[in-house]
What does this fold into?
Amino acid sequence: MNTLNVLGLTKFYGDKPALATVSFDACSGDFIGLLGANGAGKSTLIKCLSGVLTPSSGDIFFNKRSIVTSRTWCQYRIGYLPESPSGFEDLTVAEFVKFSAASHGLSGAEYKQAVIMVAEDLELKSLSRSRLADLSKGLRQRVWLAQALVHDPDILFLDEPTDGLDPIQKVALRRYILEIAKNKIVIMSTHVLEEAEAMCGRLLIMNNGHIVKDGSTNDFLDAAGQLESSIIEYAS
It folds into this structure.
């Protein structure tokens, strides 16, 4: 059983707090939706959780190991899909996925098998020699998801994973994420309420850097089975 404990997490940009004493816990099997208006602190929270940003104060513990003091150990076990991912444009798909596998500590037969499996699962084999710069947004999103999953992480952070995808691509990606997420901790930021309704068992609603509501997704649904009224109430 993997555990995540977030304790008093605060992050300042200059003198402005983007996160203000955020605390919550999660464990294996939790699929958590992170909701809130633009600027609420969702992306900053995910960047801190994944070790991309160092918090101004507070800490994050994965299996009781601090990501502040044991960042490399934690990041070997974390998968992170950033919002609107870009970069590594001159690498081919195969090179990028292999780079991610090696960066997460894989080597030898384990490394080779992981690269093969994620390419098969996300249907990337035909794109292996294509440069990231030459891919459509939907294909690029699949490749960046591959880099987040190639090492079979115990905890997965997804920042707007279906942003810019067409409806067919969104459905396929949601199904895949739900399938691989069953024994992981997953935290997903999304603006798509139907996505949160369909995928998340628990919601954290953010406003001005605070978690203002934390509970089961069912607790937020109105009589019509929708989230809209709750989000307006807590996030605005």
Summary: The mean pLDDT is 92. The chain is about 35% helix and 25% strand.
